[in-house]
Design goal:
By secondary structure, this protein is α/β, with parallel strands linked by helices. Helices cover about 35% and strands about 25% of the residues. The chain starts with 7 loop residues before the first strand and ends with a strand.
Length: about 280
C-alpha cells in the first residue's frame, strides 16, 4: 500500500480586521519592477482618497528604505507595537529598517516565516482601506505564511512583456489559485519606451505579453506602464514620480492603475478574516 502525501489544513485567523482590504503585488520573478509598481500604486491609491498602508515583504531585497527614505530604526508604542513610518500620507514598514541594508539575509524558512509574521501582526497599522504588500520573488515560504496568517483580498500580478518573465507569472497565478487568493489582474511593466529624439515607441522587451496572458487566463489587464528614466530617478531620490510629478503622464497611468485595481477590489468581500481551507504540502 502506498502512503498518501500528508497535508496541513488551515483556516486563516483575522489578526488584521481593522484593514478592509489586503492585496499582494507579486511577480514571482525578480527584475520586473514590482516594487516600483507597488510603491506608486499605493501612493496613487492614497491620492484617490483611500487610507493606505504599504508593507515591504521582500525580505531578501527590500526596496522601501531607499524609495521612501526609511533610514531610521522603528519605534514602539506603549503596547510594544511597531509604529509604521508615515511617508506622503501612507503608513510604511520594511524589513530593511530592521537589518543593515548592506547585510545579506541568509535565513531558513522558519526565520522568514517569523519575520514576516512580525511585520504583519506586530505593526500598529490601525484602520486602513487597503494594505498593499510588496511580495518577494518566488512561490515559497512567504506566500504560505501570508495565507496562514491573514485574509488576503487579492493579488496584482506584475510582469514585463517577454515570454521569459511570463513563465514565472504562470506559476505565480497557479500558486494564488491554490491558496484561494483571487487574482485581481495583470500589470505590464516596461511595456515600451518612447524615445526623446524621435518620439517613436520602441518595444524593447516585446509588448502585449501580459495582456495576452491575462486574456488567456481570464483576468483583466489593469495597466501598461512604459519605461521612463524619471521613474528610476525619482525612486532613487526617495520621492516617487506619483508624488514628485503628479501631473506627469506616467503618474496619470498609475492613477488609472489605482482606479482599475480599486474597481476589482470592490467586487470582493471586506476583510472578514477567513477563507476556505486550503491544503498546503
Amino acid at each position: 500500500m502506498t502512503n498518501a502525501p500528508t497535508s496541513t489544513f488551515f483556516t486563516p485567523p483575522k489578526p488584521l480586521n481593522a484593514i478592509k482590504h489586503i492585496i499582494c503585488v507579486a511577480s514571482c520573478k525578480g527584475g520586473v519592477g514590482k516594487s516600483t509598481i507597488a510603491v506608486n500604486l499605493a501612493l496613487a491609491l492614497k491620492q484617490n482618497g483611500h487610507s493606505v498602508g504599504l508593507l515591504d515583504a521582500d525580505l531578501y531585497g527590500p526596496s522601501l528604505p531607499q524609495m521612501l527614505d526609511l533610514n531610521t530604526g522603528p519605534k514602539l508604542n506603549e503596547q510594544n507595537k511597531i509604529i509604521p513610518f508615515d511617508r506622503f500620507g501612507i503608513l510604511c514598514m520594511s524589513m530593511g529598517v530592521l537589518i543593515p541594508q548592506e547585510s545579506a539575509l541568509v535565513w531558513r524558512g522558519l526565520m522568514i516565516q517569523k519575520a514576516l509574521s512580525q511585520l504583519l501582526l506586530d505593526v500598529e497599522w490601525g484602520e486602513l482601506d487597503i494594505l498593499v504588500i510588496d511580495m518577494p520573488p518566488g512561490t515559497g515560504d512567504p506566500y504560505l505564511t501570508l495565507a496562514k496568517k491573514i485574509h488576503v483580498s487579492g493579488a496584482v500580478i506584475v510582469s514585463t512583456p517577454q515570454e521569459l518573465a511570463l513563465l514565472d507569472v504562470r506559476k505565480g497565478v497557479q500558486m494564488f489559485e491554490k491558496l484561494n487568493i483571487p487574482v485581481l489582474g495583470f500589470v505590464e511593466n516596461m511595456s515600451y519606451f518612447i524615445c526623446d529624439s524621435c518620439d517613436k515607441k520602441h518595444t524593447l522587451f516585446d509588448t502585449g505579453g501580459a495582456a495576452r496572458e491575462a486574456k488567456k487566463l481570464g483576468y483583466p489587464l489593469l495597466g501598461e506602464i512604459p519605461l521612463n528614466p524619471l521613474v528610476r530617478i525619482t525612486a532613487d531620490q526617495s520621492s516617487p514620480i506619483v508624488t514628485q510629478y503628479p501631473e506627469h503622464h506616467i503618474s496619470l497611468m498609475y492613477a488609472n492603475l489605482a482606479n482599475a485595481t480599486w474597481a476589482q477590489i470592490q467586487n470582493l468581500p471586506l476583510n472578514a478574516g477567513s477563507v476556505a481551507s486550503v491544503a498546503v504540502p
